[in-house]
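Per your request, structure below.
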């Protein structure tokens, strides 16, 4: 069987597809991948023996250059992503049996159109639940299309979101569909999501609320197998004292002033707890604030191995980092910067495995309060309890399900 995976976005959109690709190949499937051309993503797939087909612009410089909430260049970037689905992705999907897509709507709506034209199975995968229509939650705002103040009915807001999606992307999608003989769409968002999307999150960390208008298939999180050893210098630092606290903001870009502020605050608050510090550079570009021997800086590193050896994790609240920390049984302090990060911060707080910081710009005092709670005995004990419940086989579950559905033996749809 042949499966093509189409993804575009930051690490949270790309790395889970690496995990799925590994499991599909273990089950004997041939896997093709279309992904952003960033060097680090190419390296991720190269590590499992896959050469991805480049799609779109490199993500990191785009994210770093676009101001939060700005719509400048949005239409052009969306048009490029849509064209790439009908071009490079369509060519890659020739001869395949299924197409799995994740990422922004221009990607997934284009990918489903390609699958429709080729007559192959299509799966929409989401690595967080907030973008899927639900009466239990409002939609996330789209760039340049904020939710109207005073409207509290979630169904009404989701209907507005569908209209916004049509206005933003419908004409471009339908132009490409017409060019390959497909009829126009009148609801781009629901077409892309399908009535049976897959939710690749852990059901304990991120339960899908029922009842629902969607027949959501929750597979568990798609984690990349990672057996890389930690760098010798980091191992030496870890062994030189009590477990340190990790601080990093993943693929969230920041301006230089914001990154310097975040590093000063994180190091200051962690030191005030009498703890050593590991600072992760990430896309934010965090760095050491002095030459103190109680701090160590890391770049790309095996978080699964590292988190098992730290006292707490201070981070931005991406799905991947949250899940990795939860699996390691380590308390978390989440300082959400945007997107789905406030959702994950809330889940960590609700589960009692950490603290959600109030707002994206901490002070030493505010972060210290969070760390004091995260490092208490009850929070540490609760983190270990929850860790034992986190599903580690989400990617394998998804891979088996996909291949069974291609064979025609998959579970029936909900009536």
């Amino acid at each position: 069987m042949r499966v093509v995976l189409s993804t575009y976005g930051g690490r949270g959109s790309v790395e889970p597809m690496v995990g799925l690709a590994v499991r599909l190949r273990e089950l004997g499937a041939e896997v093709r991948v279309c992904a952003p051309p960033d060097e680090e993503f190419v390296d991720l797939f190269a590590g499992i023996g896959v050469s991805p087909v480049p799609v779109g612009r490199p993500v990191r410089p785009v994210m770093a250059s676009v101001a939060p909430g700005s719509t400048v260049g949005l239409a052009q970037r969306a048009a490029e992503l849509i064209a790439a689905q009908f071009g490079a992705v369509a060519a890659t999907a020739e001869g395949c049996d299924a197409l799995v897509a994740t990422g922004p709507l221009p990607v997934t709506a284009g990918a489903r159109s390609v699958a429709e034209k080729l007559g192959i199975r299509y799966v929409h995968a989401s690595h967080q639940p907030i973008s899927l229509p639900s009466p239990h939650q409002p939609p996330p705002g789209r760039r340049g299309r904020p939710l109207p103040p005073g409207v509290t009915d979630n169904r009404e807001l989701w209907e507005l979101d569908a209209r916004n999606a049509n206005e933003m992307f419908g004409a471009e999608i339908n132009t490409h569909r017409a060019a390959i003989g497909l009829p126009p769409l009148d609801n781009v968002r629901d077409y892309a999501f399908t009535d049976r999307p897959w939710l690749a999150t852990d059901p304990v960390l991120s339960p899908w609320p029922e009842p629902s208008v969607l027949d959501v298939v929750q597979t568990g999180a798609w984690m990349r197998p990672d057996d890389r050893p930690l760098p010798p210098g980091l191992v030496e630092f870890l062994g030189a004292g009590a477990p340190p606290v990790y601080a990093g903001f993943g693929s969230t870009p920041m301006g230089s002033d914001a990154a310097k502020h975040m590093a000063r605050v994180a190091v200051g608050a962690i030191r005030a707890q009498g703890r050593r510090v590991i600072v992760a550079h990430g896309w934010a570009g965090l760095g050491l604030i002095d030459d103190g021997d109680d701090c160590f800086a890391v770049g790309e590193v095996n978080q699964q191995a590292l988190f098992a050896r730290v006292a707490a994790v201070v981070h931005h609240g991406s799905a991947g980092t949250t899940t990795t920390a939860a699996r390691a049984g380590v308390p978390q302090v989440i300082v959400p910067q945007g997107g789905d990060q406030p959702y994950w911060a809330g889940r960590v707080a609700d589960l009692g495995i950490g603290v959600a910081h109030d707002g994206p710009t901490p002070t030493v005092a505010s972060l210290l309060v969070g760390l004091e709670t995260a490092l208490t005995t009850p929070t540490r004990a609760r983190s270990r309890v929850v860790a034992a419940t986190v599903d580690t086989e989400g990617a394998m579950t998804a891979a088996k399900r996909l291949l069974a559905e291609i064979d025609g033996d998959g579970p029936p749809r909900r009536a």
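Residues 62 and 77 are 9 Å apart (CA to CA).

Regards,
D.
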